[in-house]
Design a protein that fits this description.
Elements: H1 3-14, H2 18-25, H3 42-52, H4 56-60, H5 74-93, E1 98-99, E2 102-103, H6 106-131
Antiparallel strand pairs: 1-2
Helix pairs in contact: 2-3, 5-6
Length: 138
């Protein structure tokens, strides 16, 4: 979601029109509509957040919106990437990785890394679906 979409969503949840919000912040009545294409200045964003009673990060951070509870965040994906790297390092330091009797090329190892990382992400999502308490789900 864009900053405009987040502002619109929070304003709607508070029962405030975008024109009313703009006036409360000290903007022209239609200024907020311009945020469809241009991001507001930080000072303006702070004023909008104050009127809406939200943190500025909630207006700009699309990672928190429109995602299911079980979808992986950036940190979880990064952790999985590190684990996948360790897996490959373990394979490299141990027995040689072979494909049809030939040592694996760097490209083949990279594809294996991507496949392992993807599988680990899928497994993590399944675990989150299974073990997240119902009160924290959508």
């Amino acid at each position: 979601m864009t900053t405009y979409d987040n502002i619109k969503r929070f304003a709607k949840s508070k029962g405030i029109s975008l024109q009313e919000l703009a006036e409360k912040v000290g903007l022209s009545r239609n200024m907020i509509y311009q945020y469809k294409n241009v991001n507001p200045k930080l000072e303006t964003l702070k004023k909008i957040a104050a009127v809406l009673g939200v943190d500025t990060s909630e207006l700009v951070d699309d990672d928190q919106t429109n995602t299911a509870y079980y979808e992986l965040n950036k940190k979880e994906k990064a952790d999985i990437a590190v684990q996948a790297e360790k897996l490959i390092e373990g394979l490299e330091s141990g027995a040689e990785v072979n494909f049809y009797g030939e040592p694996a090329t760097d490209e083949q190892k990279n594809r294996l890394l991507i496949a392992i990382q993807t599988a680990m992400e899928m497994n993590k999502q399944e675990a989150k679906k299974k073990f997240t308490p119902k009160k924290y789900r959508d």
